[in-house]
Write a sequence for this structure.
């Protein structure tokens, strides 16, 4: 327990110590909210879909959670290259404790980021439906954060240095975001695209948080929760396994 | 011959081999280190020193051979071995975004230093390396020498039976070097701790090491005290003996991932 706690604490401390990074990483979601929100707002309304900011905000919250989570997982490569990981790896503690502590730390940080974006979207005009569903939304945020931190760690465990990073951004993280329905409704998509979106774990995260914040859902909150929990569990397992195999 | 304990060996290595694809980094080496001894492991760049240390410290799985550290096998019984040693790596291994004190606390928790004596021991060690006054400063503001001192203090935190030091004094001034070595020697005597270290400073090895092993191209090419090695090679100093044994060719080492990353980091830090 103390191992997990100290790894979690390290991650959280480092996050709060670099306010410049926190503010910097809010630029992108804010841009998306404003530009897409107001840019497509009138078209969205004309198509009879209602207020686009309402639809978009939950998606943008999940976007910032996704990015922050994957990054804090991939952070591992830096620890690995700059030797700090070695120090952790020779500690007489089970490696999966280390992996889990680090994942929880990364997920906490990503959840914080999600909460900040949530507050930011309130300022832009986003209104939630049901105050009592907020804890459910928070649960989805945390699960999605956990899921993608674990994914980041799994990837980082197999990479030697940052060279593959661009590849991961462009061929994994960006598609996960764009194909999740964060920006557009999942109804009426071409068949092929509709199928792909169903294989994107973030789709269910976005759907779940949208249901809990504005009461709109494609799959129903039960299925959303089930899918997210199962995939999180799988990725935690895979991440632990790959982390276990790291040699210095 | 049965290993360790009864003959006072704390490290026993026999037939240790590590292959990376076609490259044999460590080739069937055997040696042992006695309890309480200061043992120098010398060799040119790329000879296999760090690879050997990584295998001794459970970071790397050997391709073949037998290992015994403080009575435990580092392959089968990793955690028992990990509890028994402290280590200062060749590359820096501090978290530069944490303070000196936080780095120590992190280590204390991971290495299960008993809670009641934890804070006292951290203070004692930080005072010894003269970093107590700067304990609440970020490590990234420290000089190379200060970081090294902190790493030595950290390695000693959980009272290891063996201290592995991979080029610990690289870039340190003679004052700091002497200071650290006299402290280490003191602990070796008082607590019967063993030191296993590598260095490129031959004078240092000559001065502090009880016994020396020289490795080259993955093989042990000589062992003995500094005087014995000088006698064998009919030379007057360890440096001359070392050159006589390993030759004068300069070794090439390839830049690895870490070196590349370091240059990237330097670019980023210049923001």
């Amino acid at each position: 327990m103390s191992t997990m706690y100290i790894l979690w604490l390290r991650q959280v401390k480092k996050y709060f110590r670099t306010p410049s990074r926190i503010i910097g990483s809010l630029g992108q979601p804010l841009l998306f909210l404003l530009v897409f929100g107001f840019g497509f707002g009138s078209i969205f309304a004309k198509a009879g879909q209602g207020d686009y900011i309402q639809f978009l905000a939950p998606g943008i919250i999940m976007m910032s959670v996704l990015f922050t989570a994957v990054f804090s997982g991939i952070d591992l490569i830096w620890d690995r290259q700059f030797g700090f990981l070695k120090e952790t790896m020779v500690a007489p503690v089970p490696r999966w404790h280390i992996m889990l502590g680090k994942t929880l730390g990364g997920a906490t940080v990503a959840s914080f980021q999600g909460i900040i974006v949530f507050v930011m979207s309130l300022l832009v005009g986003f209104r939630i439906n049901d105050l009592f569903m907020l804890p459910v939304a928070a649960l989805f945020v945390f699960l999605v954060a956990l899921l993608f931190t674990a994914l980041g760690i799994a990837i980082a465990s197999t990479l030697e240095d940052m060279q593959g990073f661009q590849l991961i951004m462009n061929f994994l993280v960006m598609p996960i975001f764009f194909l999740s329905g964060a920006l557009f409704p999942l109804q009426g998509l071409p068949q092929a695209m509709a199928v792909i979106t169903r294989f994107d774990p973030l789709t269910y995260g976005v759907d779940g948080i949208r249901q809990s914040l504005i009461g709109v859902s494609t799959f129903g909150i039960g299925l959303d929760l089930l899918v997210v929990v199962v995939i999180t569990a799988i990725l935690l397992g895979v991440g632990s396994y790959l982390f276990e195999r790291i040699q210095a | 011959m049965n290993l360790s304990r009864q003959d006072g060996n704390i490290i026993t290595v026999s037939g240790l081999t590590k292959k990376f694809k076609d490259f044999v980094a460590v080739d069937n080496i055997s040696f042992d280190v006695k309890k309480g001894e200061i043992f120098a492991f010398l060799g040119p760049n790329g000879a296999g020193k760090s690879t050997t240390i990584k295998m001794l410290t459970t970071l790397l799985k050997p391709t073949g051979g037998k290992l015994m550290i403080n009575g435990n096998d580092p392959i089968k019984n990793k955690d028992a071995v990990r509890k028994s040693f402290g280590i200062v790596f060749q590359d820096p291994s501090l978290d530069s975004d944490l303070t000196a004190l936080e780095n120590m606390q992190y280590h204390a928790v991971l290495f299960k230093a008993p809670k009641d004596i934890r804070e006292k021991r951290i203070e004692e060690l930080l005072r010894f390396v003269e970093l107590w006054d700067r304990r609440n400063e970020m490590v990234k503001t420290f000089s190379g020498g200060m970081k090294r001192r902190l790493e030595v203090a950290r390695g000693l935190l959980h009272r290891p039976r063996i201290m592995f030091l991979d080029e610990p004094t690289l870039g340190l001034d003679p004052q700091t070097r002497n200071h650290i070595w006299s402290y280490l020697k003191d602990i070796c005597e008082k607590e019967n701790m063993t030191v296993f270290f590598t260095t490129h400073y031959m004078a240092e090895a000559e001065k502090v090491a009880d016994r020396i092993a020289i490795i080259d191209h993955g093989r042990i090419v000589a062992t003995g005290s500094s005087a014995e090695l000088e006698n064998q090679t009919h030379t007057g100093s360890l440096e001359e003996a070392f050159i006589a044994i390993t030759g004068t060719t300069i070794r090439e080492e390839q830049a690895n991932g870490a070196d590349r990353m370091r240059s990237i980091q330097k670019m980023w830090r210049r923001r």
About this structure: The two ends of chain A are 25 Å apart (CA to CA).
